[in-house]
Amino acid sequence: MESKTILITGSTDGIGKVTAKALAKQGHTVIIHGRNLNKAKTVCAEIKSETGNEKIDFVVADLFLLADVQRMAGDFKKKYERLDVLINNAGAMFGKDRETTKEGLEKTMALNLFSPFLLTQLLLEILAKSPAARIINVSSSAHAMSGVPNLNDIQLTKNYSLGSAYGQSKLYLIWVTQYLAEELKKTGFNNITANSLHPGTIKTEFGQNADKGFIINLLFKLSMLFAVTPEQGAENTIYLATSKDVENITGRYFANKKVAKPNPKYYSAENEKIIWDYCMQIVQPYLNR
Ligand SMILES: NC(=O)c1ccc[n+]([C@@H]2O[C@H](COP(=O)([O-])OP(=O)(O)OC[C@H]3O[C@@H](n4cnc5c(N)ncnc54)[C@H](OP(=O)(O)O)[C@@H]3O)[C@@H](O)[C@H]2O)c1
To answer: Which atom of ligand 1 sits closest to the CA of residue 138?
Structure first.
């Protein structure tokens, strides 16, 4: 298999870490990303020693902060001339009370939607240099349980619930992936594909520490009884990152290594464009590529 250069966000733990290790084993150049310098260094060293692959590096950024995403993308472009696969994996579910980042953005939307949106925009020019680049956005089947999205209040200032925030962030991530795939085709970037995926219900640190309130805590614990290993979850991402089967597929949502249909309930081309335009407006101040 040809060696690719692959950047994976949120690869200091959970599905991202397992994905990074598996791709390192295949001999690719893997740049892991974490928010904690020491943890990123440790994971980097661990992957090198376990796989024997020395082409492992790391970048650090707090993905709550778009200014940090911008700084990290700049650092990446200074160091690397090529990027074949961008895996926007980092994501999380937060607590029962709405919280904002230091930049004033609702936390779930900042981490799960605006941050991958911005990172992708900032790295498009380097992805374009690859003969065949892939953008993979890790979404969730929870997008289908998002409740009714209010496109006039995307950051849920009025009716916040953690389920709506998480589900809607993942729904919008699917929509912006679809929109991006079309934009790439229209603008002649036929060498870049963009797809999203659901990794499965996976036993990781995901959602474990959030104060979700009694009922959701209980439901969450019950759902974890059926959760599978991070290795099983990572299979979907590894498939989208490397399989020849998907080299010409773009704008699709995958589950179980197959094209799946995202929940169509709230979808319309108009709604998708509203979300795209909103994300563009949010990230605009950080777009000096
Ligand atoms: N687990 C599931 O059942 C499930 C189901 C559907 C979808 N997903 C999606 O799969 C993806 C990976 O989840 P996971 O289960 O592997 O979660 P995880 O075990 O909690 O790992 C999340 C990763 O993201 C990083 N991260 C979290 N917040 C960050 C921030 N503000 N800035 C930078 N990095 C940050 C974490 O860094 P630290 O190492 O520093 O914590 C970690 O590396 C997420 O997008 C999640 O929404 C998961």
So the answer is: 45
